[in-house]
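DATA SHEET
Item: assembly model
Revision: 1
Owner: S.N.
Input lines:
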Amino acid sequence: MDWAALSLSLKLAGLTTALLVPLAVLLARPLAWSRFAGKTLLEALVTLPLVLPPTVLGYYLLTAFSGHAPIGQAYLALTGRTLVFSFDGLLAASLIFNLPFAVQPIQRAFDAIPRAAREAAWCCGLSSWQTLWRVELPLAWPGLLSAIVLTFAHTLGEFGVVLMVGGNISGDTRTVAIAIYDRVQAFDEHGAAMMSALLVAISFAAIGAFHLLTRRIGQHER
Amino acid sequence: MSAEGLSVRLRQKSPIALDCALECAPGELLALVGPSGSGKTTVLRCIAGLERPLAGKITCAGNTWLDKNVAWPAQSRRVGMVFQGYSLLPHLTAQDNVALALGQLPRAERRKAAEDWLARVHLHGLGKRRPGELSGGQQQRVALARALARAIGAQPTVLLLDEPFSAVDQVTRGKLQQELARLRRELAIPIVLVTHDLDEARMLADRMVLLHHGVSLQSGPPEEIMTRPGNAAIARLIGLSNLFEGTVGGRAGDDVISLEWQGQQLEVAGNQDAAPGSRVSWVIPPEGVRLHRRGRAYPSEGRNQVTGRIEDRLVLGPFTHVTLRPAVGGGPFAFSLPSHIARQDDVTPGAAATVTLLPQAIHLMPWEG
């Protein structure tokens, strides 16, 4: 069992979820409720990671993050660290390839909130910010939960992009998914089986918890 | 119009054409009446600040909410709004729904104040329930309590009601209407009620504004609009049936002029400033058409009598709707009478009958050429 890989995977999944879900809320709100120029383009861009082969996405991210590209250079200048083959780069890539998994459930949840509910809040004197906290987020809660679970589970399981951008550096960028691949390559069937079973268990627990929680919310509403 | 009341002028071409003016004084209940699609909800939303017309001016409680370069957001207007379908927030209890509108109070006092408002709309002890656990009528009361809590704060503004009785059954509707009629006597703020139901407007409103295709056609006490519509189009819009055409004759007496209709001279009483010889449309409400009872004299000395045959009879519980086709042509006249009288006098289709048109009930309107 590669505990370093497991803790790295959990750290990556946790950080990605914590950073991406608030970002997704900000993105999903205008996508659900506003009309603006370039909305269709933005929606397509958000969905793109869902259909692109991970290697293609990984290739472009690797190119953009490299020390020869503006993004990579800017990051180096700002932080003194590189984006390729580092945890920072892995996190950045993770935020991008998880966009559809975080944005889409939240956007659908916001879509389902009747406009009249928000208008009622405004007529009660709630500001846009108060309306978000006291009306929109509580009503969109199942969508948020769904985004959290999907993002977390999907980050744990992502392989292609992580391998392309992060390489396979133990303790730095080697996640469980990659460690499993390593074990198989090294004919360590027992190690591969252990880690695979663990990933299944964690993912199953996450999805199970999600279903339990949404059912409890449903009972509350009724 | 005092500065404390509500004054609204709206004008725009699109997306919905609006040309509307209305005033509502504190303590007054104004009904905004029109068929569906007439723009009445849009007018209400403009007052609430949920929609912004291209041009217009709205003042309320001494503040200008909308004018050139002025447009207060809904949050600042402090209107109490009861939405069609109520828009209660499903994740909050009744108490918290009301407390949401009490943001001006310190946090600790909101619950208590919300409970007081709920008690005022007869929902004592139901504050802990969520909207899903309340009946339709109870939900409407929560919505009303929330709107009142908002409208009657530090500075009272206006209460807006968008079809508040349309989503409940008839028995509950009657009860809620009575409650509103009772409650409004204690409220010193302008109340605007949007409804498509003329009877509701007649029952609850001090004045009504008739809206059609976004244009306010006539305003006044409901009784006056129902019996003295401004023109034939308005008469048709509010569903008046006895609408005819005629020619104004001369003066027939003090405050009485004659009206020629189908070769017959009718007397019209009341202050009718119609020029002799002019074509007019005229209308008489069903209450102004009196059937001559069998075997009884009708003390009208033959004036304004119309004879004909009963064309149709429709028994609607205690009242029977009857139409009479005049022998001189034109018509028919619609009126109703208690069902037991219709039975006694054998008012059946084909039977001969005479009615008198009450001179004071006949209302003349400009002829629409």
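QC remark: The mean pLDDT of chain B is 89.
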